[in-house]
Amino acid sequence: MSSMEGKKVPQVTFRTRQGDKWVDVTTSELFDNKTVIVFSLPGAFTPTCSSSHLPRYNELAPVFKKYGVDDILVVSVNDTFVMNAWKEDEKSENITFIPDGNGEFTEGMGMLVGKEDLGFGKRSWRYSMLVKNGVVEKMFIEPNEPGDPFKVSDADTMLKYLAPQHQVQESISIFTKPGCPFCAKAKQLLHDKGLSFEEIILGHDGNNRERTCSFRSCYCSTSVYRW
Description:
GO terms for molecular function: thioredoxin peroxidase activity. This protein is of the alpha/beta class.
């Protein structure tokens, strides 16, 4: 897998389902005259993708916009129905979900790999890139190691490249419950302090169990803090 820095992204038409209609979306529509961040991953609903990769890009989207990024795309070799379901499940309103169902874009990027050992077939290697007017300026490609490494394609690494002077706040996740007045007060306090955060709504988020496990592992504790 080699970098595509300095080269144009592949010219591909993505078949998407919007409402009850099929809508073709081209790479020209996505990239021309825009500054775009792309992060690509092995599959929708998979652990690292859902618990870390996607949420952090969604969380930092307002910061990226401040530094001139027009859109953030997540690309996966999945069909549009799977990607639409994942988008609905994740509530990641700051991210554009792109289904590379046939793997054409991923293959053109040189990132199509075999995941037959997991029963996945052909999928994307994990990477991220900054694209300006259709030309790849910078790529962060995960090292060629066994498994699914996640070391350099994360949102914080991209932000350090794009705006090295930016002071990144620690990632904040807040577990809330519908109708909880204390949760509302906690969220308002974070808003008032200008702090971005990830809200995990208990009972509404399909990945609660996965994210709770991730939360525990980060803090080496079995405690889950709820406001």
